[in-house]
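4.2 Preliminary Data

To establish feasibility before requesting continued support, the project team ran the inverse folding procedure on a target of 196 residues. The structure was first converted into the token representation described in Section 3, and no sequence information of any kind was made available to the design step. The complete token record follows.
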């Protein structure tokens, strides 16, 4: 089985949290997956034809929810690579456990400081525009090359599959998901109601 895959994320989505968290926990426990974490802006999916893309709007403008947090995540992913897993999970926790505004630069700085990361340097990297360029490029590539429409999506080879895992802390399920992705005869499998 191919253990190289990409996984999309947007910090706004609780299902993205579930799967990203499980993958990070699996890696920390010694899983040998080769994972590429890729941003996908849910705000961009809501842009109507003729409107400005989220990366062409001023920071904090209407319709840009989640974009700043994605940029901070990308700055850490690309400049402080070894610290990305902790920061990645901390941003999900800030949004989904503490319910803080991850569109507020001060909140993002606090999350970074809580992990001993240089918030001012991360902010400067975001201000450079490099993370926004990465967001634009990666999001557009996912849409044009893989037809990705949401998070979380697992990408293995030529296959891209949107997945909604209902539970957190399940790194044991990742290999099963990868096996299902390899089974290309299965196109859709969706429960009519949430299991209890």
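Position-by-position output of the design step:
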């Amino acid at each position: 089985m191919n253990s190289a895959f990409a996984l999309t994320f947007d910090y706004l989505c609780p299902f993205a949290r579930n799967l990203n968290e499980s993958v990070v926990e699996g890696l920390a426990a010694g899983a040998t997956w080769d994972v590429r974490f890729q941003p996908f802006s849910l705000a961009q999916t809501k842009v109507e034809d003729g409107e400005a893309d989220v990366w062409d709007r001023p920071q904090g403008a209407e319709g840009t929810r989640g974009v700043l947090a994605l940029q901070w995540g990308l700055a850490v992913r690309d400049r402080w690579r070894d610290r990305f897993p902790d920061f990645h999970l901390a941003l999900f926790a800030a949004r989904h456990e503490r319910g803080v505004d991850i569109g507020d630069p001060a909140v993002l700085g606090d999350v970074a400081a809580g992990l001993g990361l240089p918030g001012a340097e991360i902010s400067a990297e975001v201000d450079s525009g490099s993370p926004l360029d990465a967001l634009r490029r990666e999001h557009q590539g996912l849409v044009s090359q893989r037809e990705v429409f949401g998070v979380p999506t697992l990408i293995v080879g030529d296959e891209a599959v949107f997945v909604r895992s209902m539970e957190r802390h399940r790194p044991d399920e990742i290999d099963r998901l990868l096996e299902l992705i390899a089974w290309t005869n299965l196109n859709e499998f969706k429960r009519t109601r949430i299991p209890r």
